[in-house]
Amino acid sequence: MLAVEKANLHYGAAQALRGISLTAEMGKITCVLGRNGVGKSSLLRAVTGQHPLSGGTVAFNDVALNGMAPFARAKLGIGYVPQGREIFPLLTVKENLETGYAPVARKERFLPEDIFTLFPVLKSMLSRRGGDLSGGQQQQLAIGRALVTRPKILVLDEPTEGIQPSIIKDIGRAIKYLRDSTGMAILLVEQYLDFCRELADYVYIMDRGEIVHQGEAQTLDTPEARRHLTV
C-alpha cells in the first residue's frame, strides 16, 4: 500500500500541497480529481520523488520514501506515467520500451507480452520512431514503458489528456486488466470525470492543495463532490 501522510510541498514560497493524506491500496484503482492547478501533479511528483516534500511522509509497503531518489523508488516498484507522456521522440518504440530496463534485474530485461496484449498497435510499430506516433499511441507507449519496470504500483498523470475517445477506452480497459490480473495498486490523477467514475474503486478530490472530499466512486455524483469539480 502507498500511504501519504500530512504531506506539504513548496515551490519556493508557494505552497502546492497542504497536509495531504491518502492511501492507494493494492488491487484497487485510486483516482485523484480536481480542477487545474489544485496540486494533483505535485502530489504525484512527491510520490515518485520528482520534488521533495517540505513536511509529512510518503511510504510504500511500510518503506519510507522521503529523501529517496526517483530511480530507487522505481526499483521498489513505483512505475510512473508522466503528464505529457515524455517519450523519446528520436528512439524507436522498441528502444523507448527498453529504457524501462534500468531499474529491473538483468534476468527480467525483456519486454512482457502483456504490453502487446494490451496495446497491439505497439507490436506492429516497434521499429518506428516514438515521435512519429499519434498522441494516443504515445500514451500507450508511455504506459508500456512503465510496465517494463515491473511495477507494484502504477502512477498515471492525466492519461486521457488530448487523446481520442477510442484510445481512451483502450487505456481504460488496460487499467482495469492490470488491477484485476496483477493485483497492482493504481494511482490515477485525472480531470475526465466519466473515466474515473467507470474505473475508480476510491476517489479523492483536491482543491487548493488540500483533500476536500473522499469516498467510494459513486460519491462523485453527490452535490458536495460536484461543487468541487465544476468550473
What CATH calls the topology is Rossmann fold
Indicate the multimeric state: single chain
Helical content stands at: 25-40%
Estimated radius of gyration:
17 Å
Mean pLDDT: 94
Task: Give the overall shape, derived from the CA principal axes.
Answer: globular
Number of domains: 1
- Would you state the CATH class? Alpha Beta
List the total number of helices: 9
CATH superfamily: P-loop containing nucleotide triphosphate hydrolases
Task: Provide the spatial order of strands within the biggest beta sheet.
Answer: 6-7-8-3-9-10
How many runs of DSSP E, i.e. beta strands?
10
Structural class: alpha/beta
What attributes characterize this protein structure?
34% helix; Rossmann fold; 231 residues; globular; four-stranded antiparallel beta sheet; six-stranded mixed beta sheet; 9 helices; 10 strands; alpha/beta
Describe the structure.
Helix content is 34%, strand content 26%. The chain has 231 residues and is α/β, with parallel strands linked by helices. It has one domain: 3-Layer(aba) Sandwich (Rossmann fold), CATH 3.40.50. The strands form 2 sheets. A 6-stranded mixed beta sheet has the order 6-7-8-3-9-10, with helices on both faces. The protein has a 4-stranded antiparallel beta sheet with strand order 2-1-4-5, covered by helices on one side. Strand 4 and strand 5 form a beta hairpin. The two termini are 32 Å apart.
